[in-house]
Amino acid sequence: MALTNGAVSRYGTAAGTGTLAVLVLVAVCGSPLYVGWAEGSTDPNSTGGWFLRLLAWPAWRLGSGDSGVLATDLRAILLVVLAAALLYVLPAAQVARVQGGLSQFFSGWGAYVLAAGLAALLGTLLGPDPSLLKALQAAGAGASYGFLSGWIIGTASLGGRA
Q1: CB-neighbour burial class of residue 89 (10 A; exposed 0-12, middle 13-18, buried 19+)
Q2: Fewest beta carbons less than 10 Å away: which of 22, 91, 98, 123?
Q3: Is residue 3 part of a domain?
């Protein structure tokens, strides 16, 4: 019978803590309340204001019948689903030459960049008035959002075991 450290069982996996961070980030920063606050109360010409507005990228507005709103809701849903899937699929800590936190951090960050780009691409292609040009432009914006905010998910991934 193997002895286990009881402290290990109290923590979730790196993918689980990263997924929880994705849910919180999208739910809070994508909410209509936060988006309205960021647009009305921050200066887009300051670094802090620009970053706070960037965090509002996965905006969602459930319950409205507007087709443009459907596309942004789809983007937010796809971001959460794809990020969770990629966090579980990219087990960098198990296959990395250097075991430990650094590989968990970059795995979580990279998963979020890829998920944001794919969510924007698919959300545009599956939404109203799809076009390849719009989808590629959206994917660029999504990847930029993921790159600049993915460190939050990478940091959250540090809290779990590989």
Answers
A1: exposed
A2: 98
A3: no
Interatomic CA distance for residues 67 and 53, integer angstroms:
23
Report how far residue 73's alpha carbon sits from residue 55's, in angstroms, rounded to the nearest whole number. Answer: 15
Say what the pLDDT of residue 98 is: 54
One-letter amino acid at 114 equals L
CA gap 86, 47 in Å, rounded: 30
- How many structural domains compose the chain? 1
Domain with 93 in it? 13-157
For residue range 50-102, list pLDDT tens digits in order. 999 999 999 998 766 666 567 778 999 999 999 999 998 886 545 555 566 78
Is residue 120 situated within a structural domain? yes
Query: Distance between CA atoms of 112 and 86, rounded to whole angstroms?
Result: 8
The pLDDT score that the predictor gives to residue 159 is 62
